[in-house]
Amino acid sequence: MTSALGRLCFAVALPLTLLALVTLPGSRHLMAQQKKAVEAPKKGGSAKSKKLVKKKGGAKAKAKAQPKGPPPTPAKALFGAAKSPSPLAARAIGFYAKGCLAGGKAIPIDGPAWQVMRLSRNRNWGHPRLISLVERLAVDVKAHDGWNGLLVGDISQPRGGPMLTGHASHQIGLDADIWLTPMPDKRMDRREREDLAATSMLAADRVSVDPKVWTEAHGRLILRAASYSQIERVLVHPAIKKALCENKAFPRDHLRKVRPYWGHHYHMHIRMFCPKDSPGCTPQAVVGTDDGCGKEVDDWIARMKRIYAPRPPVEPKIVVPKPKPTPKPPEITLADLPVACKLVIGNTSPPGPSPLSDVTKPDPDAAETDGKAETSDDKAAKPALAGKK
């Protein structure tokens, strides 16, 4: 009897005990975790496995898998390789420092009052209106200003565009460099035109003209160019601008066009307005009415005096840290130029190695230093010193 009663009690107590265990909070949490573990594989795996799958098939992985193509060819290599003009109507396209030239014309290397220098560069090309203007200037200064004739420096490449060496401007066939060295009486051969060094107008202090070199004939040449209505501005060294301002014998009418800028101590740089036949030409900001002979040129001279002032000797123990190199700006490519320049350059460049690997070292006496203020509009040169160029 006792044995039967014990078995009955055990049979009743066991289910009650199991029920109590199931209803405990910890047991419910454990069962929930077991349920999730069982169901997770059915829903596509854990979050970790999802991330791995996404990373494996993402856009970045695809980009890395694809081989990168070669960088675009610099525009200066394309335009520097062109040996002849484009067979198109004459047009200046774009800005003086970012554009190209269609239908360029070459000035003859010899004329009645000029000779072209540095023939190896093949930069005696320009818009036909500019070429006519340079020829007219040469004849006029020989006839009226006591100048023997012009030595013509760089104008543009056959199709304009960026150059392999030297200038940042001269890209649209409307800029020309005229040396301040009078043309010799004889006709020079090609070797002489490569070797002759241009004459600097600067004195030893580098902030004034050398009276042994600078003459009134130089001033008449510069002002003659500035007097032409087609000329937008004439760039000269600040010391030359100062000399023009101080000579009261010179007419004042066109001094405002003569703009001071670095590097132009052995030549003047003439720049034409955009011609009417070139609607795609981007003009430069118009020169103001002030002759620039007051604060503007004085600020230029003051800044140059600070730059070229003698420095006290540095003691050997003092180590001057080298300045960090300025990063080079990215190369201009064809995509950076006006769309019309693609038609100008075409596919006529000669085959063979890139002309970048076969560049003649520029002559330090005849290579122009173009800067931002010269090659962009006047907003690029805002100093207290410069004003408009």
Q: What's the SSE blueprint?
A:
Layout: H1 2-23, H2 25-39, H3 47-56, H4 59-65, H5 75-81, E1 91-95, E2 98-102, E3 105-106, E4 110-111, E5 114-116, E6 125-126, H6 128-144, E7 150-152, E8 175-179, H7 190-195, H8 216-227, E9 231-236, H9 238-246, E10 258-260, E11 267-272, H10 295-308, H11 340-345, H12 372-375
Parallel strand pairs: 5-7, 9-10
Antiparallel strand pairs: 1-2, 3-6, 4-5, 8-11, 9-11
Helix pairs in contact: 9-10
- Total strand count, please? 11
Give a short account of the largest sheet: 4 strands, mixed
State mean pLDDT (0 to 100 scale): 81
Give the low-confidence spans.
44-54, 348-389
Number of domains: 1
Q: What is the CATH topology?
A: Muramoyl-pentapeptide Carboxypeptidase, domain 2
CATH class: Alpha Beta
Shape: globular
Sheet with most strands: strand arrangement: 8-11-9-10
Query: Rg to the nearest angstrom?
Result: 37 Å
Pattern of helices and strands: HHHHHEEEEEEHEEHHEHEEHHH
Helix content: 25-40%
Can you walk through the features of this model?
The chain is α+β, with helices and mostly antiparallel strands. It has a single domain (77-308, 330-380), classed as Muramoyl-pentapeptide Carboxypeptidase, domain 2. 33% of the residues lie in helices and 11% in strands. The chain has twelve helices and eleven strands. The termini are far apart. The model is unreliable at 44-54 and 348-389 (pLDDT under 50).
